[in-house]
Specification:
The complex is a heterodimer of chains A (211) and B (774).
Chain A: H1 6-36, E1 54-55, H2 62-91, E2 98-105, E3 108-112, E4 121-128, E5 131-139, E6 144-150, E7 157-159, E8 164-165, E9 174-178, E10 186-192, E11 205-210
Parallel strand pairs in A: 2-6, 5-11
Antiparallel strand pairs in A: 2-3, 4-5, 6-9, 7-8, 7-10, 10-11
Chain B: H1 8-23, E1 54-58, E2 69-77, E3 91-97, E4 101-104, E5 109-111, E6 117-119, E7 135-141, E8 148-156, E9 167-175, H2 185-211, H3 218-229, H4 234-263, H5 273-307, H6 316-338, H7 362-390, H8 403-434, H9 450-482, H10 489-502, H11 518-545, H12 555-574, H13 580-586, H14 590-620, H15 626-652, H16 675-707, E10 743-744, H17 755-763
Antiparallel strand pairs in B: 1-2, 2-7, 3-6, 3-8, 4-7, 5-6, 8-9
Classes of the chains: A alpha+beta (211), B alpha+beta (774).
Amino acid sequence: MEAGGEVFWELFDVFNFWALIVLIIVVVWLLYNSLVFRSKDGSDNNIDNFTPGVFPAENDNLKMELTWTIVPFILIVYLTFIAWGPIDQMWTADPDAHEVKVNSSQWSWAFDCGDLDADICEVSNIDVEGQTRPLLRLKAGESYMFNMTSTDVTHAPFFLDWGLKEDTQPGMYTRLYHTPSTDEIGSSLLMCTEYCGKDHGYMTAVVEVHA
Amino acid sequence: MLKAFRNPRAIAILAILLIAVALAPSAQSYPFGVSGVQNDGCACHGQSPSEEVVPSLEGLPAELEGGATYTLNITFTGGPSGTDPGATALGGFHLWASAGSLAAVDDSVKENPDGSVTHNGIDADDTGQGNDQTQWQVEWTAPSEGGAKFVLHTNSVNGDGTSGGDMYGRLTLDVGPQPSEQASGLTVLATAILLMVMITLGCVIWVFYRQSPDAFAWENFWPWFSDFITSTDHKNVGSLYMANGLFFLGVGGMFALIFRVQLASPGNDFLTQDEYNQFFTMHGTTMIFLAAMPMIAGFANWIVPLQIGAPDLALPRLNALAFWLNPAGAILIFTGIFSGQGADTGWTGYAPYIVSHAAHSGVTLWVAGQILFVASSTISGINFMTTFCTMRAPGMGWMNMPLFSWSMLIATLMLFISIPAFGIGLIQVLLDRTIGTVFYEAAAGGDPLLWSHLFWYFGHPEVYVVVLPAFGVISEVLSTSARRTIFGYKSMVFALAGIGIVGFIVYGHHMFTSGMSPVLRFVTMLTTMLVAVPTGIKIFNWLQTMHGGSLVYRTHTLWALGFLATFTLGGISGMYFPAVAMDLHLHETYFVVAHFHYVFVGGIVFGLYSGIYYWFPKATGRMMNEKLGILHFMTGFISYNLVFWPMHRLGIQGMPRRQHTYFITTDEYFALPAEAADWNMMITIAAFLFFASNFILVYNMISSGLKGQKAPNDPWGGWSMEWMVTSPPPTPSHDPSNLPEMKFAEVHDDGEPGFFGRVIEWMMIPEDDGGEEE
């Protein structure tokens, strides 16, 4: 297993590729300019005749400036475009999804499968470093809708293996849709990722996906 | 400097300090008096323990058996209480145990919520059974391992219903093996802060002494010192801001070191959860409001009037007020932590936690302190905008201002527009916490997202408020060091303004997972992507500035080049967040921590260090030691990257931030890989190195300031107006009767003002045209 869902890794690879290209351009340019155009003997060659109180001669080139306005803009548009599709996929509500209620309070998670089959959704207990924590068992290939709320303050379940999280707020319901794939079979730790007070770091549960 | 060690008095003072440091961590606090549970027991009868009352605690074995239950007999003798069984009151007790659990046997004894036990019989009518006795029985279950400490207080009362003449006694008892004394994180910190205060005071006195070693007299010290701290001169206020900023940079760094020790290995218990939560909260608040903001204000105060050719800021007294609100706010913010109940909300202070009962009481003080920072920023915002609008030197148009001044103008404008939202939120929280309003109480219809909106409407522009001045410093330093005019001055200004405008509509990217409206999430995704464009323009312009130049390598040049590398990395990692699908995984993980430390430290702190090395000769009239400067850069730059680069990896692996510990994958479930523990250990070690490297800067500033080589007016050959005056500058900084006039290297066409120029001229109060008197 690895942290982050499929969508995350697909985007991450593309972003890493472009980040690397930009980084290489900047670093090579930086090293070239700072080494080639250095003062060889450390002496002060006042190239543009700086004099205190005198606004110096201009140094610009409209074509170059436009280049590094427009080219990054095109790259940004491209990155926005490829980041756009997955949102649609993640936020699309599936009307047939199995509803799992998630209730959070300081500092524990409560899952409620309603009247779903035990094969599709089942809650039991598990030991996490000496603490009894809820274990949520889900089935791969089934579509789930997590209907989440909180009884006290803001919390956020972090589904580590799926790369998903969403805050739970008191007085309102937030939703998260996911269909675990067969690649995501196994159990992973669910942590709270919105700071909620003293035992925030120990507010855990385990989510298990079975075939 | 080393000469001081030969002085026996200096050695004696150092020895006393070291003994204080060694002793302080062992000072533990145990319950004192029968106080704290007024209605559940007896308050202290009498001011201090009396030797006449002799409590006794019997029933404890010589050898403890883990988990066994013992019956303890509590009695006392002496004091005003007799043995008359008909008396309404004879005495009371309070027993506290550090481990195990205490339980009442009969209803003459009551269990307190904190685990201690006390006698029953609580009201004036004396309907209880517990306080007309001199002996009680309780049960104690020993802990499964280790021993315990007991603290017993007994009251001996005279039975007339008043506490006059009553006495109490105290008994402390150790049973079984005692844990070795352990330094608590808070005590370590308090000691360190006190030490830093002493070092600072020592530096002040040393500077005073060095001014005229021959005419040194203590009675001159206070006049000199009070003149300095009550001054309204922009240079003195700027120095105060810088001292404030550097001091709290150290304090905030120590917070970080202490919680890095906690995180060095998984499952560590160096800090309790409560302490850990306070530490990261105070680290964030200190670094942003007490270190970054004052350091920037310090630069602005020092440099802006000099750079735009003004004798001082427009409103000097307001300027001093804006500064003095900072230490006042700092004291308020820290008062909470010394009470053991410091703010524990994270620097973002998300509602509804911040108004809930679970949050520490120190949050109220923390909020109050930040309201003072809001006031301070608003006041200095007015001051700087007025200065920029009215006090530029003759001939200096808007588009002739040096880029540092431009960046300060945009930053002040952003701060001035964004910080009222934060102020409103803080006042609402303060009211919620003190007089019971329900702005954030979800059960009463309060909005759980309102605070996040108000906070980030301020919080994101705030990032630009602190990073833009660093951009300004880098523009000045690179241009001067490369001996070239900054490439594309106009596009630099437009890029600054562009960041200033777009920076206001990106804040939603902090709330992609909050349940906020999807439309707003989508819009802020687009605008956040867009911010990369003006930022990119600035980076490429800086790179191109060096082209065809003759780069002179000095310490400030090195920091500026380091800034270019690290800030580019921080900017690039920022591009991963607006892609919502990635943010859902990365939000609230160490990837975020890595990103904003690359921006805040690699961007802002590196920029400001560059500025310190660049303007230090101007401010003090002495050159800094270049060798020490290069050493500082090398150690600082390397250890900094070792601290924050691995955090990217930890974040992608899913290590959440703000957590007291982290979980390694086991057979039962998948979590962090085992290597995460090694990375964390490495980060902690590197953090100590990075912290230590900064002492090179402090030492360099002190030693160079005292005996560095004398600096000429324009040591680096810059063109802006601060290099026209002497080093250090006179007071007033530019002669008001003979202001410098901006000259131009190229033929300069004043031209008619454009549309915006005419609007601004129309808004200005007309110059005194001589005729209009009464």
